[in-house]
Design a protein that fits this description.
- The protein is of the alpha+beta class and 148 residues long.
- It has one domain: Aminopeptidase, CATH 3.40.630.30.
- The protein is built from 5 helices and 7 strands; from the N terminus they run βαααβββαβαββ.
- β3 and β4 form a beta hairpin.
- The longest helix is centred in the first third of the chain and has 14 residues.
- It is globular and about 35 Å long.
Length: 148
């Protein structure tokens, strides 16, 4: 597996990976209605690209296929961490997370889904609080988690 910095040409692939992962991997913890407002079919590629360029963003590649990605901002907010459904459980998220965590000084905060919470707990993150995030009138549970 190769990990490299994000490039704008990756954007469409990352939004497709995000959509597919949310609608398959997270389906065990969220309703279809919740998944549809979390990862919509119509994503703003310009907004995604700008956000990924503003953050330290990396992609994981295996056999010339982007299999995962993640990003963190300079304040230590780990924004996105997604691995393709077909590549779960192979250490890809851990490898991405290792690089993201090393990119910043101090504590790291993330808003972990129900699905991702055990992954972050294994890495030493503590739940600061459970929260309900509202998207288009639909509420999703996630956890503010911090690693000192």
């Amino acid at each position: 597996m190769e990990i490299r910095k994000y490039q704008p040409s990756d954007c469409k692939t990352l939004t497709e990976l995000f959509y597919h992962t949310v609608h398959t991997v997270n389906a065990k913890d969220y309703t279809e209605e919740q998944l549809n407002v979390w990862a919509t079919k119509q994503m703003d590629l310009e907004k995604w690209n700008l956000s990924l360029q503003e953050h330290y963003s990396i992609v994981a590649i295996e056999d010339d296929i982007i299999v995962g990605f993640g990003d963190i901002d300079e304040t230590g907010y780990l924004d996105r961490l997604y691995v393709h459904a077909d590549y779960q459980g192979k250490g890809i998220a851990a490898a991405i997370c290792d690089q993201l965590e090393q990119a910043v000084e101090g504590s790291i905060t993330t808003h972990a889904s129900i699905t991702a919470k055990p992954f972050f707990e294994k890495r030493g993150y503590q739940v600061a609080k459970e929260q309900q995030v509202e998207r288009q009138g639909i509420f999703l549970t996630n956890y503010v988690m911090i690693k000192e």
